[in-house]
Structures are given as structure tokens and as C-alpha cells.
């Protein structure tokens, strides 16, 4: 099929088959809709790939396709359980590097980023993954910057998507790219899902780095958590750590990836998210309770970190 754009889904150890099958249905539905509307241009063919005796094999395809052809995109779906081990990833990584060098776009979702990281192609890049596994990812791949606020990151040649269900967002992004925005929006309506534009930070809560190995900084982190970041003066924080102020600031930033101010703001906002979701207290009351005298300042900080105003957040997530 000369006018087919093939999207390959990679079946690696631990892959979440629910996501594989969900993406397959999403892409097939988009192709069927494009045909019904008489849209000119390429159709989408979805294929599944695995390694057999170290060689890549296309084991399934949704339409007729030249078996010697290559996919336009290879997607690494999310995984269940622990991230893929280096020794299990190695043969896949070698194949994925070859594919990338041949011009095939690569994409990962959630823990699929661990397999993509093993290719070495992410070095020096900014990617996204699930915030729950971000610290583990950063420890394994220290030369990759992780931005968990983003649901999708598009570098052109490499896509990364955040949480387990971000396959929906990546799928819509690829439908938009190959079949156009009209088909993408109609499929989003049919599947009752938000079109691209939402951000992962709407859903995440602050998950601080705790595995950095700096005991003095960890002590301060525990104290801030217990005190809900109510006392955040530099002298008091440095005293808790038993360090000189300048040394404390340097080590805190290195260990946590954040300044003390940003760290404390994120702790306070996380507490506010919980209160907005599970209580009926006013935004002004919540602001005071988490340590802000000025509700206006609280609203600005909340919107910067979460991407929604406190009122929008409550409307979207109230229990």
C-alpha cells in the first residue's frame, strides 16, 4: 500500500497490552473515519513488532503493506511493573538506534522512556514521563532532563509522553500529523477524550526527590513536610541542616533540583490541591491555611505550578 503511513507498536518485556490494543483501535478508527469522509492522502496502518532471535519481526498489521517497508513511527508503549532491565533492553536499543538513523521517528509513553533512554538518543534532551518514576529515570539517565509538567514533548524525531494513559494524547497527536486536525478532533469526540492541549501537571502532585543521598538535605525535607513548609527562612533551614547558609543553598539545589523557595511553594500548593479537592473551604481560606497572607499571590503561584487557577482545579477534580 504505497500511500500508507505505518505506525509500529513495539512489544517489549512487560509492555502494557491494554495500551497496545487501545492505540490499535484508536488508529484503526481514525483510518476508517478518514475513508468514510473521502479524505485524500495516506491511510494509517498499525503494526506490532517484537524481536525474535534478536531480529525485529512485524507480527501483525491492520492493512496490506510491503513487508520490506519501514514504519514512519515506532512507539514504545507503557509498561507494567518495574522498568525494563538494561540487559533486556540492549537488543531493542540497538535496533531502535538503527531505525532512528534511517529516519524513523521514535516515541515513548510513561515507562517506555526507560527503553528509549537505553538507546543513548535522549542524552542532552528534555523529555517527559510519569512523575512517579521520574526520579528513578533521572538516576539511571543523569544526562537527560525530565520535565514532568508536560504531557507530551515533541522534538520532531522523538516524542515522549507522560503518564500511563498518555497514549491517548500521543495517539491523537499522530492522527493529527498523518490524517489532519479534522479527523483528530472527530475521533476525540467519538472516544470522549480531551483533544491535545492538556498538561500532565494538572494531574500530578509534588513528588520531591528523596533518593539523592545527602542526609543533611533529607533531614530538612522531612522537617518541611512535617511543618507544611510554614517556616521557610533561610537561617532556620540552614540550621536544620547544620550547614552554613551558602553551602546549604548549593547542596539543596543539587539534591532536589529546586531552589528552597520553589520547593516550599510546591509543598504548599500540593497541600492546597488536597484541600480544594476534598473540602468546601473558600480559596481565600485555603490560601491562609497553607501559609499565604495574600490570596492573590497564592492564586498566581498555584496557577504557575499547576497550570490551572484554584477555582478551575476545584471544578475539575473536586471529589
Automatic annotation (TrEMBL):
Pfam family, one: DJ-1_PfpI
Keyword set includes Glycosyltransferase: no
Coiled-coil residue spans: none
Gene3D superfamilies: 3.40.50.880, Homeodomain-like (1.10.10.60)
Residue span, HTH araC/xylS-type domain: 218-316
Record bears the keyword Transit peptide: no
CDD domains, per the entry: GATase1_AraC_2 (cd03138)
Stored InterPro entries: Class_I_gatase-like, DJ-1/PfpI, Homeodomain-like_sf, HTH_AraC, HTH_AraC-typ_CS, INH-QAR
Keywords of the record: DNA-binding, Transcription, Transcription regulation
Protein name, as recorded: GlxA family transcriptional regulator
